[in-house]
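Table S4 entry, Glutamine synthetase.
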Amino acid sequence: MKTTLRRLIFSLALLATGNACAQLPELATCTRSANLLACQDAEGNAYSVNTVGTTLYLRGFEKNGNRYWAQTNSRFGQLTFFTGIASDGEAWVGYTRRVGWTTINRFSSSGGSRAKFTCSRVTGC
């Protein structure tokens, strides 16, 4: 999985669990409405987040790989599952589980990337 997309998935996973602002790797300019957040960073990457109940629908463009992608996050209590696909055919799945102030995160992609990491609101990731 491309580095930019990996950072974005990580950031959005944190956003979905309430740990976002202090963890974002770079700042982006965003516009917000009631259910939609649209952002673009200084590198030309763009994404949007649409909220419908406990489901997040994400779409974006990755400048480095010149590819579009889409991801769906579904939350069930303290557990959030996500699946995504990119315009080059790469697909990924993963989950984020919240335990107190800690999140346990895991994902894998059809491109061979996989990761498991734990984040804390106090100490970070």
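The chain has a mean pLDDT of 86.
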